[in-house]
Amino acid sequence: MYVSYIFKEVFRRKSRTLTNVLTIAVIIAMLISVTAIMSTYTSAIYLPFKDVDSDIILQKSYNATNLTSEIRLPFGRGTFEDGEVMKISSLNHIGDVSGSLILWDFNKTGFTSIEGIDVNSAVGKKLGSWVTKGKFITDHDDKRAVLESHFAKFNRLEVGDSISLAGETFKVAGILKIGEGSPIFSSNVYIKSSDAQNISDIKGYDQLYLKIDELSNEEAVKEEISQIDPMITAVSGNYISASLKNVVNIYGTFYWAGVGIVALVAILVLFKVNAMALLERRRDIAILQSVGWTKSDITKQILFETFLQTMLGFVLGAIASLAVIAFLGSITIQVTPAGLESTPTIITMPLVLSPGDVAEYFGLSVVISLLVSYLLTKKIATIKPSENLRSL
Hints:
The protein has 12 helices and 14 strands. By secondary structure, it is of the alpha+beta class. Strands 1, 2, 3, 4, 5, 6, 7, 8, 9, 10, 11 and 12 form a 12-stranded mixed beta sheet that branches. Strands 13-14 form a two-stranded antiparallel sheet. Helix 1 crosses helix 10 (295-329), helix 2 (14-46) packs antiparallel against helix 8 and helix 8 (237-279) packs parallel to helix 11.
């Protein structure tokens, strides 16, 4: 076995080497990219619910009658009476109750979702911490609005501009960025709850955010709330996780099936490429046999060539997969939670390159390539040189 001969052989036959290297690169890029995309799906499911700043969120079902007005409650949404809010606040294990009035404004310029909030509530303070331009509204501000950043950008609105809500003019006091890992219950425009009630002639709240003392008391709280009014819907992180559990389980089954299919295709392709390359080299092997190379020498030489080509292909494939992951990870998508009348949350797929997956596929590609090369080389090297030459 001669190291110099190995490198000369690899780089002398550029066409064959390039074909093998690019084939391995494509397979590796496909394996890593597909695995990254499939692995991301599970975390992407939960991403919109990541930082909901409440333990339980309450909504009330109601057959609305104000469907012809310009500004209205979301379809099927009812309001909580003051007495109901007081009863809920007085329940055991309830630490804090924050109310908001969510409205839909259908005007000549399009649709706008509005949320009237208590600026001093826990939710109001959380929203205030996300302001990136200007300032958040205060109790002393009248007809002031804070805009969600994507909505502001789409409508080309900045701090100091004016926006019309239900025919009333509001001045933009600030812009906040909801972004990833934020509440899924986001709106386009945030104003004081009193302003929201004035422009809609709707009193009270249609959404309540609850904080409880211990998450273990969640079911007990929900049971007590259902006794107050069975039309109240309670949504929580545990409820969302439970409803997604079956989806995740189904996905897990298809995940391994998908990875298995991709791996099988990779094995077959690598086998075919290495087999064809070795069969084309029977003449070279016959010549090496004629000049005194032993079966062991030939096998080692071929294995080193195969390993070198696999290394080059793997590096190119890993670089290509990084480019694919970076591109897909920059794409933003809208996610709307099922069963909730809220504005879609803008997220990006949290695609990452897993070192564990990279190591696994490196080992897989090397083992397959070397195994195929070893078995075929061993078989070819045992054939007499004259028979190898006659087979061409």
